[in-house]
Amino acid sequence: MGKQTGTGEAWQQELRARGYRLTPQRQRVLEAVGVLGHATPEAISEQVGDGVNLSTVYRSLELLEDLGLVRHTHLNHGSPSYSVAGSADHVHLVCRDCEAVLEVGAELLQPLVATIADEQGFSVDVGHVALFGRCAACANR
Q: Which end of the chain is more exposed for a tag (fewer CB within 10 A), N or C?
């Protein structure tokens, strides 16, 4: 699970091109997502710190996701987890025992995705897929 900073001119230009201002809060939210890797809005709010309330974090995440800069995945029954977009599509493997989150390449699901597309005409968004089970360490206990 590589961590990215999420900073750089490209995303700043993207915000401006779409008519949004580059606010310090939005920049701090995106940078926090990059530092944390996979994080809930609550964890991002803690990372951002004082001066940015949770509702601002949620609004910023929604905008950043609309712009394709972050993506979310539901890794548990609580809040979604956000990560910086742009990395290769991957599937999350979530251990029900220790709650570890592993990533594997989305190509592992390609046969299933192709079958679903052929039989149902449905296009699976693998970037939002989380599979639950037990990690090797917990299974060997």
A: C
Strand, coil or helix: 47? helix
Among residues 88, 86, 34, which one has the least CA distance to residue 61?
Answer: 34
As beta bridge partners, residue 72 has 82
pLDDT in tens, the chain (141 residues): 334 444 456 667 777 787 877 788 888 998 899 888 888 899 999 999 887 899 999 999 999 888 888 888 877 777 788 888 766 677 888 899 998 888 888 888 899 999 999 999 999 888 777 889 999 999 998
Burial class of 84 by CB neighbour count within 10 A (0 to 12, 13 to 18, 19+): buried
57-71 b/e (C-beta count within 10 Å ≥ 16 → b): bbebbebbeebebbb
DSSP assigned state of 59: H
Enter the tokens of residue 77: 């029954």
